[in-house]
Structure formats: structure tokens, C-alpha cells
Amino acid sequence: MIARDTVVSIGLSAAIVAVEGEQPAVLVVAHAGSHDALPFGPFDPAHHRTLESGLRKWVGEQTRFDLGYTEQLYTFGDKGRHLPSSGLDVRMADGGARMVSVGYLALTRQGQEAPGTQWRGWYHYFPWEDWRDCRPAMIDAVIVPALKKFVKDAPDAKAVELRRARVNVCFGEGWDEERVLERYELLYEAGLVEEFWRDSGRPVKNRLGTAMQFDHRRILATAIARLRGKLKYRPVVFELMAPAFTLLELQRTVEALAGLRLHKQNFRRLVAEQGLVEGTGKFTAATRGRPAELFRFRREVLRERQAPGVRLGRRGKPA
Amino acid sequence: MIARDTVVSIGLSAAIVAVEGEQPAVLVVAHAGSHDALPFGPFDPAHHRTLESGLRKWVGEQTRFDLGYTEQLYTFGDKGRHLPSSGLDVRMADGGARMVSVGYLALTRQGQEAPGTQWRGWYHYFPWEDWRDCRPAMIDAVIVPALKKFVKDAPDAKAVELRRARVNVCFGEGWDEERVLERYELLYEAGLVEEFWRDSGRPVKNRLGTAMQFDHRRILATAIARLRGKLKYRPVVFELMAPAFTLLELQRTVEALAGLRLHKQNFRRLVAEQGLVEGTGKFTAATRGRPAELFRFRREVLRERQAPGVRLGRRGKPA
DNA sequence: CATATTTATACTCGAAATGAGTATTAAATG
DNA sequence: CATTTAATACTCATTTCGAGTATAAATATG
Fold first, then answer.
1. pLDDT beneath 70: ranges in chain A
2. What is the pTM of this model?
3. Contacts of A132 in chain B (CB under 8 A)
4. Which of A213, A255, A261, B307 could form an S-S bond across to A37 if both were Cys, CB 3.0 to 4.6 Å?
5. Mean predicted confidence (pLDDT) in B152-161
């Protein structure tokens, strides 16, 4: 028998990403007076065969967006932390079932958004993640000192060591642009992020970056991390590009997502060698400087075997 | 209000993996007369704060295993395909809520299993995935011909092209050991796998590999794919090793998981350069051949910054 | 005991990939 | 026409990778 308490509702949240003018942006539902939220809806198992079809359905209704590429990110079920059940969600307000939320990443090109939704640069939520100009000053000015305190305040020597290691991996020497989620979770635990105080019902003491509703900033962090990783071994950037683009535009898009600058000449070499693009023979209407050739994505690479960017070889012959 | 039909049950399934004697094995619940299943249980939101704690709880009860490393894989919600709702599951037998299943990967070392469970080599379920000796003969003998027919039987020219591309990526020239799920899904759609016939309620026509209950083989495919990928950029193999091991044992374990042979000398070079292991000064009690030194995993690498194996450089200076 | 067999480990070497440039070309701007 | 901005070609040293060869240290076997 199914007890009432083995039953949950499923919420679907989507980080819908586009890049416009060198800024990666995410589509948010902005209510006046409350925090931004990701487009968010319930999964209705009676009407949808798969989670993804449910997602496409209400995203279509709510945002008028036709999702192209989508990818499931993670399923969060934490009680009391980050989740709608700890906030105010009408859908849950009648004391109904616990909610579990499934996060998705979707890539589109920016178009006209539906009323109530708007594009917002993702570095508003994660200002420490944009290293394109330089290491963000706030890291040394605010984050590292606060985290040092967090390390010192650990309950015992072992916890100190553990925290020190985490801080070092997240904000120490070197920068792994993929560890977006790890960094956010660390900042959360260290109480540097508004959500921490809200979830624990205490007055807000720190607020790094712009907060979001529920656990949506965590989902967005997961999305960014996933996208930054995927970039390198699957040709997903092209989902974000116009049908024709210059190589510099492509590079700027990748840089915007990765939050890093790349070496121009080598970037071109790489893209060309992989056979990811082909010239169209057309050129940009002159803006400034020498006009650039317009390229298009060679969809064929998807069929031609082996995902571009995939490395790791080292295979030997049978023993 | 929460309508009855917006509510679902959550099932948690775990692919618990260990490697013993060069065979990667997965812990299954084997009922006489029915197919093997992964350890599987409901998520009880009333008693568990997170999905993972729920998982650990009943896995502990059901299998007596203390899970070490765990990782969420994917959440499947397909109706009518692969899922319990299309099979016979006592938990669902009273016509209750739709089930959504969350799959997990867990890594352990093989110990004594609980009654009713047993370790089973994962290549029983995926015989085409083991390329350690050579390209499995069944691929050319059975799979490729059957898939050629599948391509030809596509409804229209466009579908033919799409299918051809998929077949090529999955079983054509080159072998991407990570595409385990893609290959399984292709075999499923082509009706080469027992689950396809079972899910569609027709008599079984083909059965490649050993079938599992519900969608568990799909979850296992996801687990293998994830693990094969993760191996390369995070030191997860060590979760499967004894505290001290020889470099050859380590290599054999990696090979078992990847389903490939590696070049011995280069493998050593790589492992050593990454600083992943350190010698203990002890040597194996002589079996045959020169005794090998015993190594241990240097857990410190996890703190020393940057995940071992991570590549991709190509970062430039600010424009 | 000599020799074959196993396995471990060190070292080499060419090919390819990578990081970091320099040089040259083609336009617009003033 | 010099200057600026950008595109694109080419170079070059370094590192990484793939594929070996060479040597060492044990057991097994005649």
C-alpha cells in the first residue's frame, strides 16, 4: 500500500540559458518584491509520459520559449534547505506532499520573452565566477577573509582541516572554472549567501551576489558547472549561436560561459582542426577593422564519429 | 491544491559497483524465476531529509552494505517504458501513484553480501562493452547486421539517415567507451534487447545480454557510462581498491571498468606524474615474477588543488 | 644450477598537441 | 596617409602521448 507519506510532488525547474552581447543570461521570473526564480512548474504525471515532455509543455506555456537542447541536471530533495517547502510556495501551502525538484538546463537563443519573465546576466548571481577581465576583486577583499574565519570557527581540529582543504580547492591557487557548485555550496555553508540565512530562519547577515528563490541559485550553479564542463567535449556552444557567426563571436561566447579569456589564434586553430565549422564565403558588414568571415556549425560532425573535443587515448593492445 | 494526479512515488535504485578479480560487478537482488534487479526501495519523505540519506538507509537494511562514495545518476520518469509501472511491482500493485525512479551509483569493495543479493559481473548485462581481449565477436556477428536492418526499416528517408548516424556513432569505426547508455538505448529501440519486448507487451524476439527488471539495465548503463567518464578526471578508482595495491592491480581495475587494455608503462608514468599514489616500501609476497611494490592512494591530492586528470588549458590573457 | 618465464620498472624517441608568440593583411577612422 | 582595429597565417619551444626497448628481480622447470 502506498502510505500518504511515501508520496511527493515533483517540481521541474529550468535554467534556460542564452548569450547576448558577451553576457550569458538566464531566463528568470521576476516578481516585484520577491527574489528572482527560475521558470518552475509541477510535473503532472497524468498528462505527461516523461519528465522532459512535462518540462517542455509548461515552459512553452509560461515563457513562450521553444526549448531546443535540454539536459537533466540533478534532482534535489533536501528538506529544510534551499527547497520550496522551506519557503512560501502556493503549491505547497495546503500542507501537501513534500516536494522534490528536478533541475534542467536548456540552451536557446535570446528572443522575445513572455510577460513576467526576463533575461538576467548569470554573473549577477555569481559575480565571483567571471574572471574575464581579472580575478574578481571581491574574492580577495571579501570572500577569502570571510572563509578564513569560517575555517577558524570549525568545531574541532579535524573540521578545520577539512574546511581549509575545501577553501583551498575552491578559492586557492589556480582556478577550476567548473567548480561552480562546489564554490556556491561552500559560500552557503559559510553563511556568505542570503539563502543560508533565509533557509535557517535567521536575519540576513551577508549577501554575496543576487539571491534567488528556493534552491534556484543552486540549480543555476549546477547548470553553469555542467555547461562549462560540457563545452569542452561536446559542441554545445552552437546551440547558443546564430546560424552564421564570426570566429570572434564564437570565442566571445565561449569566454562568456567559461568566465575566462582564451588565446585567439589557438582557439581558431582548435576549432578549425576539429572540423566544427565551415566558412560560408560571406563576410560581416564592416564594423571596424578587417571584416571577418562568417562561419556556420558543421552539424555533420555529430555523425562523423566521436564527439569533438574528446581526448584521453592511452589505449594499448590486448595483453 | 494538490490533485491526486500531481503526486508520484519516488523509487531509489542503486548500482553498487565493486571490482573483484578483474571483473566489475554489480550487486543485484536475484529472485528465482524473475530477472535480476538493482537494490531498489521507496523514498520516504517523512523520515528522510535528503534522497541520499533515504538511499543509504534502506541499502544498509537491504544489503548490509555501507555505501562509501555515492553519486546521483539520473531521474527517470518514463511511463510505459522500462519503469516499474509497466511491470509488476508490489509497491505499485494497488494502482497507486505513478513512480519516478532516481538512480544512484555507489562504489565499494566487495564484502559479504546479504541473503538474496549477489554480485554479478556487469558484462553479463552488456557483453558488447568488454573490449579487453578484442572487439567482441557478437558486434559483427549479430549487432551490426540487426542494426542495418533497423536502419532500412525506418519509416522515411530522413529517419533512415538519422538511424544510420546513430548506428555509426555507436558501433561504427572507433569506439567511445563512454557511450554505454547511447548504445543500450539504440539496441532497445531496435528491439535487440528483451526489455523492449517486455515493455511493449509482445513476445520476446531477441535478447542480447542478460535482461534486468524494470528499467534497471538502463540505470546500470548510465552508471557504467558515468563511471567510465569520471575515471579520467577524478580519482574515483581508489574507492574500489584495497588500501594497498600494486600498480598492475590498479591498472587491471581501470581496464576492467573501461573495458579496454592500457599501455602498461604509460599508465605508470601517468599515475606517478599525477602524484596519485605513493609507494609504501612494502612488496607483494611473491607470486610469480618480480615482486611489485605496494602503493597507496595519496588522499592529499584531493586537497592539493585541481582534480587530477583535468586537462583543457588554452586560457589566454585578458584582451 | 641454468634457463625460460613472469612481472616490474627505467628509459628512449618520434609524433602530436599546446601555449605563447610574431608577422602580415584588410578594412575603417580621422 | 598614418593610425587603429580586427582577421588570419605562420613559427617555435615545450609538453604530452603513444609505442617501444632495455634491464632487473623474482619463480618455475628441466
1. 1-5, 80-97, 286, 304-319
2. 0.89
3. 318
4. A213
5. 95
Give the C-alpha distances (Å, rounded to integers) separating B160 from A76, B139, B148, B271: 39, 20, 10, 44
Cell of A193: 549567501
Nearest by CB: B310 against A176, A262, A316: A176
Check if residue B155 sits with its Cβ under 7 angstroms from strand C. no
Give the pLDDT confidence of A254-266 residue by residue, as tens digits: 999 999 888 888 8
* B152-184 burial code (b ≥16 CB/10 A, e <16): eeeeeeeeeeebbbbbbbbbbeebbbbbbbebb
Length of chain A: 319
What phi, psi does A216 have (nearest 5°)? Answer: -70, -30
Q: Which of A240, A243, A226 is nearest to A295 (CA)?
A: A243
Length of chain B in terms of residues written: 319
A 100-129 residues inside an 8 A Cβ radius of B: 100, 102
Q: Which residue is nearest to nucleotide D20 (CA to C1')?
A: B265
Are B49 and A263 a contacting pair at CB < 8 A?
no
What pairs with residue A40 in β-bridges? Answer: A13
Alpha-carbon gap, residue A215 to A192, rounded angstroms: 15
Grid cell at residue A316? 594499448
- Measuring CA to CA, how many Å separate B69 from each of A149, A206, A259? 29, 33, 30
The tens digit of pLDDT for each residue in A61-75 reads 777 777 889 999 999
In 10 A of CB A172, how many CB atoms?
17
Distance in angstroms (rounded) separating the CA atoms of residues A295 and A203: 52
